[in-house]
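Hi Y.,

Following your request, here is the sequence exactly as I used it, all 224 residues.
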Amino acid sequence: MHLISGPLSLFSYKVEIALIEKGLAYEKTVVPFTQTGGYEPRDATVLRVNPKRQVPVLVDGDLELFDSTVILEYLEDAYPVPALYPADPAGRARCRLLELTADEILLPDLRRQMHRSEPPAADPARRAELEANGRLGDAAMARHFAVLEARLGAGPFFCGDTLTVADIALFLMVFWSLRLKGPRLQGVPALAGWYARMTARPSVAAAVTAVAAADRVLSPDLFR
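Below is the corresponding structure, written out as tokens. Let me know if you'd prefer a different format.
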């Protein structure tokens, strides 16, 4: 199995965490990336497999897949143990909705913060616009954290007693926002406890470590 990923691609880490949780052996290719030039030059396999020209791409034998959600559903079907989705249909639907919430509801507000990892805009007006937009993103993410706090309740994970795809997807959004100097978790103790449980898992800790290493090279502005 071969994963093509990016050094700061949160959706690639979503797939990689799942691969590790399932105990699957895989090779990984990390495509070129810079904060100024993006993913250039584009990887030839990515261009051939994904019309969106994006990582992650997973190759398993003669099967070539793109889109993290499709990849995770394939991994669950092909390698069902350990499970990363609930067993019952209603639980699986709730899990998928939480994954969608991460990828489609939280991500647009997270994007408002992403300029913080890039070199500052040269134009002062543009820089001020990005900073104001980032503050809007902070406020929105704080509201999302409060909603997630209520949704999590007293459970150890979002879909019950075991980790699921929902936890992986939501963790990466929370982690990325914290990485981008977004709101902290002091006011959401249940979410903070869940975050600590997630980072204690070897699969998640490996992703956090890899992102920190990439940031030292690619995102020095985060350390100022």
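Residues 2-78 form a domain with the Glutaredoxin fold (CATH 3.40.30.10).

Thanks again,
Q.
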